[in-house]
Amino acid sequence: MEDTIKELERERNALQKRANELRRRRDKLHEESRRLCEERDELNARIRSLRNKIKEYKERRDELNRRVKEAKKKRNELNEIYAKARKKLRELERKRSSALGVNPMKLKRKLRKLEEQQMTQPMTPQEEKEIIEKISKLHAQLKEQERILKEDVVLKRALEEVEIARERAEKQHEKVEELAEKAQREHEKMIELAKQCDALVEKVNQIQEKIVFLKIDADKTHKSFIECVNKIHELDKKISSLKKEMRMKEKTSVEKVANEIFERFKRGEKLSTEDLLLLQKAGLI
């Protein structure tokens, strides 16, 4: 029986060693899982912050795009006013030119034709002199016509209206471009942050996957640890029971020997010191 107890104790010690290893592994897995959870939570906080900023950029971009739309509408209206002012000016110039008996467009076409001939066609000095005189005459006619038209109060007012309309249209166009550039900058910032956010989300997903596998491993390790502990408890009970049984057998054996010695004592036989100690241990003296 003593050999059986020793064998069971060796088995128990091996199980205790295994249980200690499993507990350390389980605690290490839990610690790694906790660390990854903290990292995941920090990344999620950054993601929430980025998403708030992305929302702000998007709102500003959308507001700027709305203003761009309104500015374009205003620009189109001003371009239409400018076009009408130019049309009105051309009509007045045509009427005034007709009243003067001169068509400026015909004069300009004729002038360009003569200048082209002078530059491209070979000619005698006399012919070139005649063309130069004609060109000078045409320039003088156009200049005179321009002088007369500039002195016309109605034309002058129409020209001023054209210039004012042109300046307003150009300023509105600049405003459209400025707003569009601002909207584009907000959009680019939003896209950049969205890319950063997507990268962090991907990292969080990877970490979460690791956490899941760590928890599965930790749960399996904990289950094995509990199984070891339960087996240890079972062995402790067996060992305790066997030791109790062995003590009972030893007690019974001692009592039997003590009774035999006590009978010898009663018969007056001489007892050794060892015999007397045994009787004392058994409570017979």
Describe the protein's architecture and organization:
The two termini are 31 Å apart. This protein is mostly helical. The protein is built from 5 helices and no strands. It has a single domain (2-243), classed as Helix Hairpins. The protein is rod-shaped and about 180 Å long. The protein has helices spanning 2-100, 104-120, 125-150, 153-266, 273-282.
List keywords for this structure.
mainly alpha; Helix Hairpins
Tell me what portion of residues adopts beta-strand conformation: under 5%
Tell me the span between the first and last alpha carbons. Answer: 31 Å
CATH hierarchy: architecture: Orthogonal Bundle
Number of domains: 1
The tally of beta strands, per DSSP, is 0
CATH class: Mainly Alpha
Summarize the main sheet.
none
Low-confidence stretches: none
CATH topology: Helix Hairpins
Structure in a nutshell:
The chain is an all-alpha fold. The chain has helices spanning 2-100, 104-120, 125-150, 153-266, 273-282.
